[in-house]
Amino acid sequence: MKDYGIILRGLLGRTYNAVQSTDTAVKEGKEIGNQNRKIKKIDARKRALIFVLFAVGSFLLGLFIMFVDPYHSIYKYKLKFGPGGEIFSIWEKPPVDLFLKVYLWNVTNSKEYMSGKDEKLQFQEVGPYVYRELMSHNDIIFNDNGTLSSVPTHPLVWDPFLSGDRKEDDVLVLPNIALLGIGDVVATKNIFTRLGLNVIIRQSNSQPLVAMTAKEFMFGYKSTLVDLGNTFMPSWIYFSKLGLIDRMYDFKGDYETVYTGTKLGINNIGLVATYNGATKIPQWDSPCGDIQNSSDGTKFPGNIKPNDTLRFFRKSMCRAKSLVRVGETVEDGFKSYVYNFDPESDDNGRVHPKNRCFCKAKNIDQCHPKGLLDVRGCYYGFPIALSYPHFFEGDKVLFNKVKSGLNPQKEKHQSYVIIEPNSGTPIKLAIRYQINIFLGNLKNIANSEKFSNMTLPLLWTEIGMYGLPTFLKIRFKLYLYIIPLAQTFFMYALFVSSIFACVYSLHKFLAYKRIEITKSSLWMEDDIILNIDKKLASYIPEKQLDVNSKKMEVFFSNLVIPLNTSMEKA
Fold first, then answer.
1. pTM score, two decimals?
2. How far apart are CA 466 and CA 468, in angstroms?
3. Helix, strand, or coil here: 514?
């Protein structure tokens, strides 16, 4: 029976210890819970604050990109027209394939025409004779007025591959420019001057149609008339050989100034300010001779608007010619504008009075027909006139002395320039024009009577650039499309992320509030448990709650002794 007392005392002792352990665990649990709630509370507030700051930062950065436009600053830097500038380097020595194609007019019925058997000339277009034009701007000097000065050079290199079966030594029958040109000039002089010229013509047996090589006709051929003119009239005929392409590409002594963008803004970068120190060429009065703000084809104005009129200048054209937009296209991946020469610019004043300054004749009826521009001032003083190839869009009177060979076609003979409007970069171009000799009354000039009052086509050319090299395409696409698109995408991404960050921050703030509410409810549960503990404690003396387990064992031993005694008696 003693064993039962021992067992009961042990059970009661363990029960008391369990109560003590439970009380301790509850207190410890309450402390851990409070710590966790504090951690969650701090974490929620932290995240909410972080995302608010992120939202504000993203929004401000997006506004900065929108209003400051960093791409534009980069773009302006790239356009820097000075040493190290990328666009400047391209302008200084264009890394493009630029070609000059030359087509000559071979006279196939020269004997029949000269003998009187045929009344009209029969022409055969022969070509192209292709040359690479190695264009560059040399001896550059930067000026204080926002311009730079340079010497333009356009050396030509024969390209036999692109010329096909054409050779520079092809022999053709071509007009004798020396005889016909000098004859036209002298025809209006006094009788003694005409008589002297006729003696020279007959003694030298100069003929109006002669056989010569293609290269001689283009770059200069020897002539007795030219030699005499060079001897007795050096102020007029200062050359020993006469050639049309040679004259077109005679840039000796020339210089030009172009805008650098430091004074008048970036849109005029690369445009001509003056040529040989003047804002116009000397052959024409203003406005016909004005060349200011024109382009040599290397760089056009930037930020071109659809209705803007551009101007193209080449010394061989003897003027700056207006370009008008006729459409839009996508060329080599670039959205571009397509330009043709202004149709009104090919008039000498007969149709459009504004062009009257292109005709120096006193009587308007003596001006050249439509489509023919008198440029004798740019070609030795000879009666040279420019037109489109095959007299495209020219007056029908120009075909009066032509039997066959001329067949004007828009696709082949109209000039065009394709320009990327933002940068003003030419993507593709073909500048086509024909050199003719416009003859007056030659009845008093020996061997030339049959060529009176007629226009002879001499040759036509195409200055062509048919696409950008691959590395330039990649570079311009990066600058014109990829970078601005990436900037726009990044700007909107910042705005969107700012909105999401605000929403997420609000979510975290609400979560923090939920933690506060949850804490309050847990506090209520703790109070209930505490009240229960207090009620239980009221039944047990405070001192007894503090007694150790040994005293409790004595207490219970005294309780169970009578029970053991009674059981032994039994």
1. 0.78
2. 7
3. helix
Residue 566 β-bridge partners: none
* Contact of 284 with 256, CB cutoff 8 Å: no
Structure tokens at 78: 């790239």
- Nearest Cα to 393, choosing from 366, 367, 415? 415
Q: What are the structure tokens assigned to 540, written together? A: 């047990």
State the distance between the two ends of the chain, measured CA to CA, in whole angstroms.
Answer: 11
State which amino acid sits at residue 540: I
Question: Both tokens of residue 307?
Answer: 């209705």
Residue ranges of E strands in 315-414: 319-331, 334-341, 373-374, 384-387, 402-404
DSSP structure class, residue 439: -
Beta strand 147-153 with 256-259 is: antiparallel
Q: What pairs with residue 428 in β-bridges?
A: 418
pLDDT digits (tens, 9 = 90+) for 69-121: 777 777 777 677 878 778 888 889 999 999 999 999 999 999 999 998 998 99
Q: Which helix (H) or strand (E) holds 173?
A: strand 171-175
Euclidean distance between CA atoms 125 and 468, whole angstroms: 29
Task: State how far the Cα of 290 lies from the Cα of 309, in Å rounded to an integer.
Answer: 15
Contact between residue 319 and residue 281 where contact means Cβ atoms under 8 Å apart: yes
Residue 313 dihedral angles phi and psi, to the nearest 5°? -125, 130
CA distance 446 to 390: 29
**Which one has a higher pLDDT value, 352 or 552?**
352
